[in-house]
Amino acid sequence: MSALQVIGDPVLHSKSPLLHGAMLRALGLDIPYTVHVVKKGELPAYLAWAAENGVTGFNATMPHKEDLLPLLDGLDESAARCGAVNTVARRNGKWVGFNTDGPGCLEALKEAGMDTNGRAVLVLGAGGAARAVVPALTAGGAERVFVANRNLQRAEALCGGNGRLSPAPFDGDTLARLAGQSGLVVNCTSLGMADTPSQFDSFDFLDALPEGTGVFDLIYHPAETELLKQARLRGHPAANGLGMLVWQAVLALEIFLDRPLDRPRMAAAARAALD
Which stretches of the chain score pLDDT less than 50? Predict the structure, then answer.
């Protein structure tokens, strides 16, 4: 009997059981997908328990995405490239880590009509989300990626000397200058998230965006952040992170089942579960 889980702390709010449950039902598979609270430091014990209790795969959220790296038996290129894991599958008795956040973001951008190929992209933030998204953007054909962050050293560390990646400070003048050179903006910060006091100091940098430049916000609660509202007011296409949530789950389920799926059908089933 196989079983799937999502682990983290906090994790009880996770939408993963809803998404995966809907997709598994659409496939006619009776595989349970449950939430399991795992606190920081408990990963080794959890991995041993999971192996003994029929868990064949799990998704990981905070605070485990980086802590899992040295504990797994292998890493897919997707996880090794960004230094974080959000999906783990049992393969021939071994735990193998993957990351579907970046590829899920690319799928969501495509769905929103925001092409990355050959474009310069302004990424806001250099934290865990950006570490997954930035490599995916370059893999998806972005010509150049500007990584703006309040802590410039974190942006420099993420860029790591890659000639297509450019670290930058997070101030109004710099954001405006880079926005004027960009064909897409992706917010990977928590600015604008519900119940988060931190907000953007100003949205004036949006005035510098070329006409028709898309603005994508990884946040999906609230459904319309102030960033997206301000982008739409200026006539720019805007999309939240709900699509990314859906697509990273679709790609994770392919990994769990170790076979290709009808991705549009799975995405539709997952999205319907959120309505």
Answer: none
